[in-house]
Amino acid sequence: MVARSMTRGMATARGAADRLARIPGVSVLTPPDRMATLVTFSIAGWPAAEALEELGKRTFAIARTIVSLDAIRISVGFFTSDEELERFSECVELLATHTPETLPPRRTLAMLGES
Q1: What does the pLDDT look like over 8-51, one tens digit per residue?
Q2: Confidence check: pLDDT of 113 > 80
Q3: Given 3-state DSSP classes, what are the helix, strand and coil percentages for the chain, each rounded to the nearest 5?
Q4: Full DSSP string of 39-69
Q5: CB 64 within 8 A of CB 58
Q6: Which domains does the chain have, with CATH numbers?
Q7: What is the DSSP letter of 100?
Q8: Residue 61 CA to chain centroid, in angstroms?
Q9: How many Cβ atoms are within 10 Å of 10's Cβ, its own excluded?
Q10: Which of 9, 12, 16, 60 could form a disulfide with 37 if both were Cys (CB 3.0 to 4.6 A apart)?
């Protein structure tokens, strides 16, 4: 019997892979028949390290690069919410519609009292 947490984690990862695969310019590299809770993908026009750095500035994800594939791998768990995955996917979609040179700058907040 597969634990409920594992079943939920795998279903959440599958949903993330499906959502990412629908984004023009994003290639999901993880074979669907071998997917557990890791999803590997690439974004056209973006080196993986640069894309991961930008994603890290805009959203939260447990992720790393796979250097040999020039790709990003996210880790999805049973605890990952649909809202978190949607925010992450929206950031991937933003990157996919731009190049590193044309990406709009991330808004920053001024902290009062800082010099």
Answers
A1: 888 999 999 999 999 999 999 999 888 889 999 999 999 999 99
A2: no
A3: 45, 15, 40
A4: EEEEETT--HHHHHHHHHHHS---EEEEGGG
A5: no
A6: 4-96 (3.90.1150.10)
A7: T
A8: 7
A9: 16
A10: 9
